[in-house]
Amino acid sequence: MAKAQQSAREHTRRLSEGCCPIHGTPMPQIGNDVIDGQHVYVVGCPRKDCDVQATETEPYGPATLRSEWVHLIQPTLVS
Ligand SMILES: [Zn+2]
Predict the structure, then answer these.
(1) Phi, psi at 12, each rounded to 5°
(2) pLDDT at position 77, please?
(3) Could you read off the pLDDT of 8-59 as tens digits, one per residue?
(4) pLDDT for residue 68
């Protein structure tokens, strides 16, 4: 398996556990937002040198990266 593909899979697994895709650290809630009329929890990596943010529909549930960070788990789309 290609390295980029492997890490993309790892990133996806970490996100599905509500963890930072880069560091694997559980992401605490840092705010709230409403997307398409649905309340979501905004979570973020606790590391100072990392500002990855994601949203969850339930606390500690599967996280979805915010659009600014989607490229992290889709390396094949980066030119
Ligand atoms: Zn991080």
Answers:
(1) -65, -40
(2) 52
(3) 889 899 999 999 999 999 999 999 999 999 999 999 999 999 999 999 998 8
(4) 87
Instruction: Return d(Cα 69, Cα 79) in angstroms, integer.
Output: 15
Question: Which tokens belong to 71?
Answer: 């490229």
Q: In the chain, where are the structural domains located?
A: 3-74
- Give the pLDDT mean for 56-77: 82
- Which residues have their alpha-adjacent CB atom under 5 A from ion ligand 1? 20, 22-23, 45, 47, 50, 52
Ligand 1 centroid – CA 27 distance (Å): 8
Distance 26 CA to ligand 1 centre (A): 9
Q: Is 37 left (phi over 0), alpha (psi -120 to 50) or beta?
A: left
How do strand 53-56 and strand 38-44 relate by DSSP bridges?
Answer: antiparallel
How much distance in Å is there from the Cα of 35 to the middle of ligand 1?
23
